[in-house]
């Protein structure tokens, strides 16, 4: 059942939602899906379906899919598992192309009847050629065509294509990414992967023109060797970021209970991902960090980073974090240090060796001069500029951090090397507020902004590694 | 110069601040210190000093320490490095007991002049018996006696006036500031904090010995870039860990970090391997970030010691549970599968297993109401095979239901459970990147902290802190048995 062109999934003209109740006083998942489609601007027809019939917000609720007068491309199922075989049969009659099962209670539960029900439901789908997303998942989010599984997910599109086995985690990924200014072409939450699985979505995204970076949250795969092949092909075309969860024994057990996935050992996964050239990440936060780096930072020529910021203690931590992540922090040459000393008139309260600890009280123009001096140094490949918020004591942190933010915003035209910005040490409400405003401005100006130096350094190193792998892989093709 | 009782440092009756400018339009750290002390409620005398004299807010600025009419116990120096030898001579004449040098520009800079000044200071100090904190640091914070190095003004909170049982000594000023703020956000407070910079006189060993004997301090925490006297420190550490937990964040562990540490506080950093084995052998708790300093302190203060590592992880979200399980295992905790009878009981309560996981991690459907949540959590806590509970609430996972509606039910349930569960509990509030989630999580954190819960911002961090709490007690037990 190989199908590399699943594009129709994201372009339905009409959607039926099974499991909509006319009773608005009760929480009703079907109704929430209806509202989500409405809120995200879906332009096609939406047909609510519920066995009791009735009306909801002026729309008729059909008792059966078969009663819908027009054709139905796509169905969302939010009904209990035991009714699903019947629903699939109705969909077959109606000529539905794909069904997404929000419905849970299949192979992932301890009761073996769940597994039997899943097989029965899938068998009917297979016979009629209907493709299934799920069960036990959130389905599709595609801002461009107005598909959504949330009442308030962003309507803005971006270049990241995400497939995630967990529904909750796909929502978390979208929100964490949005908060950092990263947006999606399409997101698929695919749960138990009874029919369409990780390999299908990986191949789809590899060929999708709207997707520049592929990202995956995987608990376990259905077809190991097909996935490995698909991964190798995809990574050559675009970066593939993979978070493999359920890697420990306890995690594996949770993954089985969650999506009945076969998790596979840690070691196997690490090797598979490395050999295929995928970028392995270990948390949702890191997934977003790497996406952000791929999208917002030009590729540095090497790993020599100049760390620029404020605070002696923070600079010591910064150096450790960069080195531990695999970057190099070269000592700045004597001439550069001398030029910095000239700019600042003294080294007291500053440090110019690298990390470079700069005093903000001479204003942002001086700061821009100093940063440019460092950036112009031939031994430096990239800059990490860090701005801590909660280190200020005698002065409102708005002033010194503001000087840094202004300086960074002026760098776009004067510094030709890649720049990562770290806004951190924000634990008080005031600091969080300031940092959040600063992040919006910096993101708008196109900077990659991170919440810690370690995370910035690690993401940047992983992106460099990916490009090194890709260079080798394409050379291999050229010579062989 | 071993001195076990540095207690007088934290109880000065009068403080002179050298380097207070009478011009309120210019930024001036001396004035900052003055306002910090007055605003924080320091009850003793505060004397501003500046060679040009003048007045500040109606208070006379003395041209020299020697002109001050009363006695002076403690001096804060915020003057340029080149004037410090004269200041010390004046302090000696005045009978000052200790000087804190905020002043920088000594051995941490790339200039022989700085190095030379540092040894000159030390020489004068040795002769007069005055003890020195710093130079190049923030000095003392002691809420009980009103010492502080943070200024409160509109748009910026000062340090908490509330005292607590953590004693912190930190080589970096900026980092001690962040540590204090991060801790107070989690309900962790300090007996005393010392930011000690270049440590030309009083150093890490002095403060470690002091905190070990200080009855107001139950947990010792340290941020160290490098030590002055390695063997004395090792000895002091071995003694201290026998009486209370000592949490150490050793930075400058990489080669470049070492260079940065040298530029920062002139510290000799030492290889990371040496440090690791020193800390392990002495039973100190090694941590790797400022956040972890707070996480582990929190575990010691608010998580009672579990009998073992068998953890039940309870929360919402299948994917979140998978990640939770991985993180607990990686941190060294174990997640036993819940016994079949208990799983059956939970299934009966929820009438279905669809959308839930009862094996452990336990993933509970959110729409069942507070009573059922409380009952099921209690049922899990009663299970003999469980030593501790980690309850997690994720904020950014909701999309079809209002985040406040669901998370509020969990937070209320956890608050109601207070006192009804006799096993150690930690609460994790995580995934709150979106503004609204941030706000809700911050409010929930305040309420849970106030109720006495240990609140963490990720499952991995909670699990690792608790595992370190257990490890420390295992070590202490072992070392007692050896003795």
In words, what does this structure look like?
The complex is a heterodimer of chains A (480) and B (483). By secondary structure, chain A is of the alpha/beta class. In chain A, 42% of the residues lie in helices and 16% in strands. Chain A has 15 helices and 18 strands. Chain A has helices at 29-39, 84-94, 112-128, 167-179, 198-207, 224-237, 249-259, 266-276, 284-296, 312-325, 334-344, 364-375, 398-409, 429-444, 453-479, and strands at residues 14-18, 45-49, 55-56, 59-60, 74-77, 98-101, 131-133, 139-141, 157-164, 184-189, 213-218, 240-244, 279-281, 305-309, 356-357, 382-388, 419-424, 448-450. Chain A has a 6-stranded mixed sheet with strand order 8-10-9-11-12-13, with helices on both faces. A 5-stranded parallel sheet of chain A has the order 2-1-5-6-7, sandwiched between helices. In chain A, α2 (84-94) packs parallel to α3 and α5 runs parallel beside α6 (224-237). The two termini of chain A are 32 Å apart. The relative contact order of chain A is 0.08. The model of chain A has no long low-confidence stretch (mean pLDDT 91). Chain B is an alpha/beta fold and 483 residues long. Chain B is elongated and about 80 Å long. The longest helix of chain B has 24 residues, at 459-482. Chain B folds into 3 domains: 1-137, 3-Layer(aba) Sandwich (Rossmann fold), CATH 3.40.50.720; 162-302, Rossmann fold (3-Layer(aba) Sandwich), CATH 3.40.50; 305-473, 3-Layer(aba) Sandwich (Rossmann fold). In chain B, the strands form 4 sheets. In chain B, strands 8-10-9-11-12-13 form a 6-stranded mixed sheet, with helices on both faces. In chain B, strands 2-1-5-6-7 form a 5-stranded parallel sheet, sandwiched between helices. The two termini of chain B are 30 Å apart. The mean pLDDT of chain B is 90. In chain B, 42% of the residues lie in helices and 16% in strands. Chain B is built from 15 helices and 18 strands. In chain B, α2 (84-94) links the parallel β5 and β6. The interface between A and B is large, with 100 and 97 residues.
């Amino acid at each position: 059942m190989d199908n590399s062109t699943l594009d129709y999934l994201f372009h339905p003209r009409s959607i039926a939602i099974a499991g909509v109740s006319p009773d608005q006083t009760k929480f009703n998942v079907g109704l929430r899906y209806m509202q989500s489609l409405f809120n995200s601007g879906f332009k096609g027809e939406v047909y609510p379906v519920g066995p009791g019939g009735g009306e909801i917000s002026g729309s008729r609720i059909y008792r059966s899919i078969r009663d819908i007068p027009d054709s139905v491309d796509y169905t969302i199922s939010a009904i209990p598992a035991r009714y699903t075989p019947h629903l699939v049969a109705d969909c077959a009659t109606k000529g539905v192309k794909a069904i997404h099962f929000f419905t849970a209670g299949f192979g992932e539960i301890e009761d073996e009847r769940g597994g039997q029900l899943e097989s029965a439901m899938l068998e009917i789908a297979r016979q009629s050629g209907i493709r299934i997303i799920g069960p036990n998942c959130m389905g599709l989010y595609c801002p461009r065509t107005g598909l959504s599984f949330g009442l308030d997910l962003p309507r803005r599109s971006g270049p990241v294509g995400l497939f995630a086995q967990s529904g909750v985690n796909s929502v978390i990924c979208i929100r964490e990414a949005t908060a950092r200014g990263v947006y999606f072409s399409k997101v698929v939450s695919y749960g138990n992967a009874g029919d369409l699985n990780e390999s299908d979505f990986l191949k789809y995204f590899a060929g999708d023109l709207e997707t520049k970076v592929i990202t995956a949250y995987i608990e376990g795969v259905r077809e190991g060797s097909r996935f490995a092949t698909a991964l190798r092909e995809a990574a050559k075309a675009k970066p593939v970021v993979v978070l493999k969860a359920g890697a420990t024994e306890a995690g594996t057990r949770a993954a089985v209970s969650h999506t009945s996935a076969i998790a596979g050992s840690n070691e196997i996964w690490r090797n598979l991902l490395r050999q295929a050239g995928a970028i392995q990440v270990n948390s949702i936060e890191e997934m977003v960090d790497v996406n952000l780096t791929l999208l917002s930072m030009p590729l540095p020529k090497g790993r020599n980073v100049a760390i620029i910021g404020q605070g002696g203690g923070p600079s010591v931590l910064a150096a450790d974090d960069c080195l531990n992540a695999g970057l190099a922090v070269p000592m700045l040459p004597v001439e550069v240090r001398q030029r910095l000393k000239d700019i600042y008139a003294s080294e007291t309260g500053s440090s110019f060796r690298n990390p470079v600890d700069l005093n903000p009280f001479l204003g942002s123009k001086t700061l821009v001069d100093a940063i440019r001096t460092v950036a112009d140094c031939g031994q430096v490949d990239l800059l990490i500029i860090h701005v801590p918020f909660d280190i200020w004591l005698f002065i409102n942190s708005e002033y010194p951090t503001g000087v840094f933010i202004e300086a960074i915003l002026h760098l776009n035209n004067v510094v030709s090397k890649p720049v990562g910005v770290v806004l951190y040490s924000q634990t008080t409400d005031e600091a969080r507020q300031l940092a959040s405003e600063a992040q919006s401005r910096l993101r708008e100006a196109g900077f990659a902004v991170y919440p810690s130096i370690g995370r910035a350094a690690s993401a940047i190193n992983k992106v460099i590694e990916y490009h090194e792998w890709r260079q080798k892989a394409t050379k291999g093709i050229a010579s062989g | 110069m071993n001195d076990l009782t540095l207690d007088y440092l934290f109880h000065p009756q009068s403080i002179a601040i050298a380097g207070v400018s009478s011009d309120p339009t210019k930024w001036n750290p001396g004035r900052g210190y003055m306002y910090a002390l007055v605003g924080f409620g320091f009850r003793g005398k505060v004397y501003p000093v500046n060679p040009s004299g003048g007045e500040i807010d109606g208070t006379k600025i003395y041209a020299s320490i020697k002109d001050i009419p009363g006695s002076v116990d403690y001096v804060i120096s915020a003057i340029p490095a080149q004037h410090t030898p004269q200041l010390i001579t004046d302090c000696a004449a005045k009978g000052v007991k200790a000087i804190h040098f905020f002043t920088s520009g000594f051995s941490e800079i790339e200039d022989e002049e700085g190095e030379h000044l540092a040894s000159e200071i030390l020489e004068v100090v040795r002769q007069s018996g005055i003890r020195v904190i710093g130079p190049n640091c923030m000095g003392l914070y002691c809420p009980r006696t009103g010492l502080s190095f943070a200024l409160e003004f509109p748009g910026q909170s000062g340090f908490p006036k509330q005292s607590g049982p953590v004693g912190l000594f930190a080589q970096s000023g900026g980092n001690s500031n962040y540590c204090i703020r991060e801790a107070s956000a989690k309900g962790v407070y300090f007996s005393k904090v010392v930011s000690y910079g270049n440590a030309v006189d009083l150093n890490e060993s002095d403060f470690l010995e002091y905190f070990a004997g200080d009855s107001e301090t139950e947990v010792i925490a340290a941020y160290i870039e490098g030590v002055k006297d390695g063997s004395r420190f090792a000895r002091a550490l071995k003694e201290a860990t026998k009486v209370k937990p000592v949490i150490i964040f050793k930075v400058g562990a990489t080669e470049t970090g070492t260079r940065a540490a040298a530029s920062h506080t002139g510290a000799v950093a030492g290889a990371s391997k040496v440090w690791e084995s020193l800390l392990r052998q002495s039973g100190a708790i090694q941590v790797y970030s400022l956040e972890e300093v707070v996480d582990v302190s929190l575990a010691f203060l608010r998580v009672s010691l579990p009998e073992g590592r068998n953890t039940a992880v309870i929360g919402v979200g299948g994917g979140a549970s998978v990640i939770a399980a991985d993180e607990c295992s990686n941190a060294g905790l174990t997640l036993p599968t819940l016994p079949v009878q208990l799983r059956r009981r939970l299934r009966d309560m929820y009438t279905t297993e669809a959308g839930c996981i009862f094996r452990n991690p336990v993933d509970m459907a959110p729409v069942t109401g507070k009573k059922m949540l409380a009952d099921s959590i209690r049922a899990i806590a009663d299970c003999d095979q469980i030593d501790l509970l980690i309850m997690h609430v994720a904020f950014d996972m909701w999309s079809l239901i209002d985040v406040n509606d669901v998370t509020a039910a969990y937070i209320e349930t956890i608050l109601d459970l207070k006192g009804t569960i006799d096993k150690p509990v930690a609460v994790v509030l995580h995934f709150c990147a979106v503004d609204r989630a941030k706000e809700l999580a911050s409010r929930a954190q305040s309420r849970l902290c106030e109720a006495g819960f240990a609140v963490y911002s990720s499952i991995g961090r909670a699990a690792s802190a608790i595992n370190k709490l257990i490890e420390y007690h295992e070590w202490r037990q072992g070392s007692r048995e050896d003795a």
